[in-house]
Amino acid sequence: MACKLVGFSFLLFSCLILAISASPSLADNVTVTVRAITAIQETDGNLVCATIDWWPKEKCDYGWCPWYNSSIINLDLTNPILYNAVKAFKTLRIRLGGSLQDQVIYGVGKYRKGCEDFKKDPNGLFTFSSGCLTMSRWDEINAFFSKTGAILTFGLNALNGRERAINSTEYVGPWDATNARHFIKHTVSKGYKIESWEFGNELCGEGVSAKVNATRYAMDLIKLKKIIHRMYRGFNAQDRPKLLTPGGFFNMPWFAEMLQVSGPNVVNVVTHHIYNLGPGNDNRLINRILDPFYLSQVAKMYKAVQYVVRNFGPWSTPWIGESGGAYNSGGKGVSDSFVDSFWYLDQLAMVSVYGHSVFCRQALIGGNYGLLDPTTFVPNPDYYRQCTSLEPIDGKASP
Ligand SMILES: *[C@@H]1O[C@H](CO)[C@@H](O)[C@H](O)[C@H]1NC(C)=O
Ligand SMILES: *[C@@H]1O[C@H](CO)[C@@H](O)[C@H](O)[C@H]1NC(C)=O
Ligand SMILES: *[C@@H]1O[C@H](CO)[C@@H](O)[C@H](O)[C@H]1NC(C)=O
Ligand SMILES: *[C@@H]1O[C@H](CO)[C@@H](O)[C@H](O)[C@H]1NC(C)=O
């Protein structure tokens, strides 16, 4: 069945209900017509967004290692299914980022030589060493996404130059912007179009592996904003990349302080992450996905984010910067199967109702929650549940 994605969550929601109730048998083709009466919210024209992560194949959870070659660094960008899967959206939003983002070095300037991938390191954050993005890989990434029409968000390393406080997960001291500045400068000089730069991953509030205080963070955001202005001098205001932050779990006082201290028009988009189903190995995942009362609990958080943005940063818009349902790479046999759609469609509609204009699904590929299978690239059911008129994707029509 096919139903067009329109900018109204009312329609999204109707699509979900009808899609479920209008399937007489598996073999039939069903045409669903939605007649909208009223719109309750408008979303970004690109509500649907997917992430690509840095996780290497050595990333394992619960004895499974479901990432294979789906890292930003080694994803096979010549795969025709991947090409068609992104291209089918015409303008799919892609967010490049994830846990290891704050350990990424950009292979420019003095890092041009000896630019190496992540390695297992028991003393590193998330048990990995820092990793380096070569500029030749950056060329390939930009060529691929420009060809497929994607709209890119790139998450910058926000820990550079900070030191870990003794006996704490807090990182202190100012952000060292040098490597990021060189990288942005290189990107501009190549003419690569980045729609938005995101600052940091899961460093807000209590953090996940590391945290940074909100005032310190806000001061560094002002610094990054100035860099973006300088690097994109001569661009029209609407062509200058947006600044997104903090890309982490919502914490009301931290978010409010960050917005107040950074001040008007520094942060354009407030990104936060949602993993409301629990860990990937939780045996209650399916029950939760099929329980409307459970799924609706997270509305409280969407409402709270909307409140903080309206009151402390009315110049910005909230987005879900990353959400895969179940954390630690998703639930095997759950996040990659039909049942997950009940969670996914519900979230797309719910965030729209609470004024979020973008929802980035973790992940386009990789983990158990990928829209595409990480070894065959064949779409999982959720790929088709995005309420767009997508034809089945195959590897035939190559670029
Ligand atoms: C459903 O539609 C597809 C594509 O138009 C067609 O190939 C297929 O035969 C149809 N199936 C049925 C049961 O009508
Ligand atoms: C991942 O990439 C390596 C190196 O290119 C290759 O040898 C391996 O077969 C790939 N693995 C999968 C699952 O595609
Ligand atoms: C850090 O923790 C260790 C082990 O708990 C303790 O022995 C040490 O005194 C602590 N150092 C400081 C500065 O708090
Ligand atoms: C946060 O960082 C700022 C700037 O470095 C510092 O002045 C302030 O005391 C810190 N706040 C807390 C609660 O640690």
From TrEMBL:
Origin species: Carex littledalei
Main location: membrane
Name of protein: Heparanase-like protein 2
Xref: InterPro entries: GH (IPR017853), Glyco_hydro_79 (IPR005199)
UniProt keyword annotations, A-Z: Glycoprotein, Hydrolase, Lysosome, Membrane, Secreted, Signal
One CC-aspect GO term: plant-type cell wall
Location within or outside the cell: Lysosome membrane; Secreted
Molecular function via GO: beta-glucuronidase activity
Function: Endoglycosidase which is a cell surface and extracellular matrix-degrading enzyme. Cleaves heparan sulfate proteoglycans (HSPGs) into heparan sulfate side chains and core proteoglycans.
Pfam families documented for this protein: Glyco_hydro_79n
Protein family membership: Belongs to the glycosyl hydrolase 79 family.
Mode of membrane association: Peripheral membrane protein
Signal peptide: 1-27
